Amino acid sequence: MSFPATRLRRLRRTDALRALVRETSLSPDDVVMPLFACPGEGVVRPVAGLPGIAQRSIDEIAREGAELQRLGVRAVLLFGIPEEKDEQGSGAWDADGIVQRALRALRAEAPGLTLLTDVCLCEYTSHGHCGVLRDGEVANDETVELLARTALSHVDAGADAVAPSDMMDGRVSAIRDVLPDTPIVSYAAKYASAFYGPFREVAESTPAFGDRRGYQMDPANVREALRECALDLEEGADVLMVKPALPYLDVLRAVRERFDCPVWAYSVSGEYAMVKAGAAAGHLDERRAALEALTAVKRAGAGTIVTYWAKELAAWL
Ligand code: PBG
Fold first, then answer.
1. How many Å lie between the centroid of ligand 1 and the Cα of residue 19?
2. Ligand 1: nearest atom to the Cα of 79
3. What is the CATH number of the domain that holds 268?
4. Residue 245: inside a domain, yes or no?
5. Which domain holds residue 185?
6. How far apart are the C-alpha atoms of 20 and 22, rounded to whole Å?
7. Residue 241 and residue 252: Cα distance in Å, rounded?
8. Residue 271: CB within 6 Å of ligand 1?
9. Which residue is catalytic, options 85, 190, 276, 311?
10. pTM given for the model
11. Is the peptide bond before 244 cis (omega within 30 degrees of 0)?
């Protein structure tokens, strides 16, 4: 049937009708809030590129966790900025490291929150790369062992799930070997993206030389993303994550259609910063733009989104 019998505007007439036929919805259940733990006490250090996001000392992380829990956010993803960095990134697996301490504090102050940790070395290495260097390159297999050690230390400190973000080959199986019962949320298709810019400012993890194109994916590729995902599932990943989100909606859709596991997206710092900057300049409405962007990420195939809007979203909805 076509026009005039078919008139698609009929179902767009009122808010209630639109709600009744809406295909995609957003809820606080669908988002994960990133948190950045730093040394000190009573520290809430805002980041210029990420309005509303701050580095927080352990006591402040615990307070923020309790607040997020109260607002209805269910999960956080923890990053750490250590006191000291070294060649190996040994702060990453220190039983008394920054993330490990933050985990214990969050467990105590926000017992209802699900605690995920980012597993990577880049915040802990003096050179800022995601693994150990041999002859100026990141050495894969050595790094993988250190990542497994890091993941284990996070779980010992109370993490509910671990999220490896380094893009080394074989890291999921190495983590699976030491953690048979822990959910692994794999950053399976993680691209070498310019949209991580503001994050590197908050995580203090900009590489001292070179870039991450030797391990993160080429933005031009989608078939390769499917191979990464297939391998991670075989190695024991429970959740596949695509990152960034908005510039990679086609990748999300392809991963959603190919695999039957949960698929998540990481809506990265640059995506958030762009909207914040546009809104601050008076060019767009932040809340509408954020809800539209996050709805699009879900529509493309993400069940859950890691987003810096998680806290505001819980308040908005
Ligand atoms: C660590 C890591 C990065 C992000 C998450 N985990 C940065 C990077 O790979 O350089 C980016 C998150 C964001 O931009 O919001 N490897």
1. 35
2. 6
3. 3.20.20.70
4. yes
5. 25-316
6. 6
7. 9
8. no
9. 190
10. 0.97
11. yes
243 is annotated as an active-site residue:
yes
* Whether residue 123 has its Cβ less than 6 Å from ligand 1: no
pLDDT per residue of the chain (317 residues) written in tens, 0 to 9: 899 999 999 999 999 999 999 999 999 999 999 999 999 999 999 999 999 999 999 999 999 999 999 999 999 999 999 999 999 999 999 999 999 999 999 999 999 999 999 999 999 999 999 999 999 999 999 999 999 999 999 999 999 999 999 999 999 999 999 999 999 999 999 999 999 999 998 888 888 899 999 999 999 999 999 999 999 999 999 999 999 999 999 999 999 999 999 999 999 999 999 999 999 999 999 999 999 999 999 999 999 999 999 999 999 98
Number of domains making up the chain: 1
Regarding the beta carbon of 165 and ligand 1, being less than 6 Å apart is answered: yes
Distance between CA atoms of residues 151 and 183, nearest Å: 11
191 lines ligand 1 (CB under 6 A): no
Neighbouring CB atoms inside 10 A of 287's CB total 14
> 267 CB under 6 A from ligand 1?
no
- Does residue 1 form part of some domain? no
Catalytic residue of the set 243, 276, 298, 311:
243
- Residue 232 falls inside a structural domain: yes
DSSP state of 184: B
Tokens 């940790």 sit on residue:
117
Q: Is 182 helix (H, G, I), strand (E, B) or coil?
A: coil
> Does residue 311 have an active-site annotation?
no
